[in-house]
Amino acid sequence: MANRKRVASKSKLPILATAVVIILVALVTIAWMYGKKEAPAIPPVSATPLTVGSVEQSLEAYRGQVLILDIWATWCGPCIKEIPDFIKLREKYGSQGFEIIGVSVDPIATQGGGAAAVAPFMKRYGINYPIWMITDPAALGQYPMGSGIPTTYIIDRNGRVAQKYIGARPMSVFENDIKPLL
């Protein structure tokens, strides 16, 4: 009789161990799923510019990403010179939590064709990143133009300005700034 009890308890041991393993795996899976943070919803890139009332507030949708915030205009030669490099940077690093936001000052500038010039310009140059327009300089908030355009801000994942440039820079400068932040 004692032998039967030993055999019965030995046969229950593998079943008990398997049940414990299954429960642990289920608990770990549930903990992982609930601990996983969703990335903020990023508006899709539009073929037309979006008018924003506050650059600062609009950037909140991009919190958690490394950003280049480029203040520019369609009539600005140095601004135009940077666009092909920005397109390349977005293609190269976009999947790593990097985005470029162009802020056109065409609607508030006295030169150029105003707001109507921005959408055709985006199409002509094949811009693959979001373009915003402002109708009031105050919309720039903590990201002023400085003494000229382009004015470019490198912003880290926490929304802090890591670097600011006034005037055009080569792609290598921006790449060196964003790589350590990714």
Summarize the structure.
With 182 residues, this protein is an alpha/beta fold. The protein has five helices and six strands, in the order αβαβαβαβββα.
Q: How does this structure look, described?
A:
This protein is α/β, with parallel strands linked by helices. The protein is 40% helix and 16% strand. The protein starts with a helix and ends with a helix.
The run of helices and strands is HEHEHEHEEEH
Structural class: alpha/beta
Quaternary assembly: single chain
Number of domains: 2
Characterize the largest beta sheet: strand count, sense, and whether it forms a barrel: 6 strands, mixed
Helix fraction by DSSP (H/I, runs of at least 4): 25-40%
For the record, the CATH class of the largest domain is Alpha Beta
Task: Give the integer mean of the pLDDT values.
Answer: 86
CATH topology title of the largest domain? Glutaredoxin
Proportion in β-strands: 15-25%
How many beta strands in the DSSP annotation? 6
Query: Spans of 5+ residues with little confidence (pLDDT < 50)?
Result: 36-43
What's the architecture of the largest domain in CATH terms?
3-Layer(aba) Sandwich
Rounded to an integer in angstroms, the radius of gyration calculated over CA atoms is 26 Å
Measured between the Cα atoms of the first and last residue, the distance is 68 Å
Tell me, what's the shape? elongated
